[in-house]
Amino acid sequence: xxxxxxxxxxxxxxxxxxxxxxxxxxxxxxxxxxxxxxxxxxxxxxxxxxxxxxxxxxxxxxxxxxxxxxxxxxxxxxxxxxxxxxxxxxxxxxxxxxxxxxxxxxxxxxxxxxxxxxxxxxxxxxxxxxxxxxxxxxxxxxxxxxxxxxxxxxxxxxxxxxxxxxxxxxxxxxxxxxxxxxxxxxxxxxxxxxxxxxxxxxxxxxxxxxxxxxxxxxxxxxxxxxxxxxxxxxxxxxxxxxxxxxxxxxxxxxxxxxxxxxxxxxxxxxxxxxxxxxxxxxxxxxxxxxxxxxxxxxxxxxxxxxxxxxxxxxxxxxxxxxxxxxxxxxxxxxxxxxx
Length: 339
Prior knowledge:
CATH architecture of the largest domain: Orthogonal Bundle
Strand order of the largest sheet: 1-5-6-4-3-2
Strand content: 15-25%
Order of helices and strands: HEHEEEHHEEEHEEEEEHEHEEHHH
Oligomer: single chain
Structural class: alpha+beta
Shape: globular
Number of domains: 2
Helix content: 40-55%
Number of helices: 10
């Protein structure tokens, strides 16, 4: 009994140490990103998190990004939450990422287009994030929900998702004195609630530009393969148009029901086919582009306008790409057209 008591006391000392270290870094990040101003969030204890997830037992698993983080469902004091836990490996490679996620998620939590951060726990070696849980489902690589082979969502739902995500990105680009670039727009960072409303999340590698600046050079390029802006990849220069490009790819995924890339497995030098290249090649050959979904869901006029907008978002030059606020307005207009 005495041995168990000493073990528990040592664990509490560790948790106190982690809390102080994490709290210090969190405060530094808060000051750096938004001058210390943020929406209030709750600080959960490690006991609450461990008890609610049974020490992160797989039976509470919701979703994961391998080698990065795992989501768990949890009930604390009668309320349902979604817990985001980063892997040790990810934290070692990207030590500031969890704090960035907390700071920026809390900053945008008042806007309906984002997954709401309720709080965090600083008593672990890496902070654990606590979000609202409204029976959310994560989008899969084909822009649907469930397994990769699951049926596509109805076209009107996919259009609604695009509109919500476009508005959320436009908010990041325009709502604050300093532009926030998400830098990782892709289906795994989009969730649907039980009413089909889309929410954007995933700010661990987002970048807040210096006030008055429209770009920054990043030492380490980051993003999801198939969604990354070629300009950013080749120059290390990150702008709001990098998000525009990534969103254009997401539009193509939603429209066609295909992943951003796939493996042809033919033994060639370049076995992976990028969705954007696939679409452009079809256009160059004058071949029809097949839109995803059942025949009774087709809205050819809407879908053609949606395709044209997606390709404009993916133009080779930044100056030829629209701003996200214009993209959001165009999608809203497309949604109202009965064609």
